[in-house]
Amino acid sequence: MASTLELLRQMVPPPRIDDCRRVLCVQPHPDDTDIGAGATVARLARLGAEVHYLTVTDGSAGALDPGLDRTRLTALRRQEQEQAARILGVRELRWLDYPDAGDYSEYRVRLDVIRAIRELRPDLLLTVDPWTPYESHPDHLICGRAVAAAALLHGFASVGNADAAVDRGAQPRPLVAIAFYHTAHPNQYVAVDEEDWRRKWEAVACHRSQLDLATLESYRLYFDTRAREHGQAVGVARAEAFKVLPVALLHCVAEAMYL
What we know:
This is PIG-L deacetylase family protein. Helix content is 42%, strand content 17%.
């Protein structure tokens, strides 16, 4: 008899990220997806996928230059993300502008993500893993949980933003899975080539308000080492790692952590 894990893998196999053609990346701050999955984003765009970014906060909580006020920093971080997105091939940027490291509702973020799902009709959501052990940034926790809940609930027409035009469009749609980066429990590795990797770091380097040269180099060393270790899992030079779960496994499935 098949084990429970084997049965789940047969019943609801996760899609390959490479096969997804419309991807919505929801990030807590400008730069998070570039750092956590930038090479995968570059690869998806190169393969013809349509990639959208939705950024939850305004990114105004911190900068290398203490003289920047929050309004100026918000504008600068938008410009940096726009520049990075062009390098990676991102189709569109959307902004929610909740206060970075501030007081805002996970519930409201969930509704905003549901609206974006209904409008963009992605087949994959990509976001931070809020269940990574010791993850302590509240924006990452709110974002990851809100996106997972939105993935689960977006198809219920009674759950929405009180926006009749959008909510009337709620219907069965092609969203099949969510992929978490910065995860402690990866189950899928995306092979990235030298050009994908180069574009990732060119994009990350755009976030100059956050990263001085020493920090950028330490990030590059850490993520390159990790990518090479992940690459060994699939027999390539480098790979980025994700926890990919079909939407059907986001509720009442105790074994999801082990898949």
